[in-house]
Amino acid sequence: MYNNKVRTAVALHLTGTLTEGEAARHAGLSRAQLRRYTRTCGAIVPAPSTDDLDAELQEHADSNAVRLDG
User: Model-level pTM?
Assistant: First the structure.
């Protein structure tokens, strides 16, 4: 795997200590990259819930919002 930080984030996510989003931030990866690492490490990971996907879409929309006030 990439490095110790990524390995730790994947392990914490797989044990349920961190959510997918938290683990991705901890590792400095996108959630898609983290999913790839979790899929290729040999462990079974459940699909993200629709709440997680909705939150990720909202985060993306918020980060791309154009500010008109300044």
Answer: 0.56
Report pLDDT digits (tens) over 44-53.
556 666 666 5
45 within 8 A of 39, measured Cβ to Cβ: yes
Indicate the pLDDT class of residue 64, thresholds 50, 70 and 90: low
How is residue 53 written in tokens? 């996907």
Q: What is the DSSP string of 28-44?
A: T--HHHHHHHHHHTT--
d(CA 13, CA 32): 14
Under 8 Å between Cβ of 1 and 7: yes
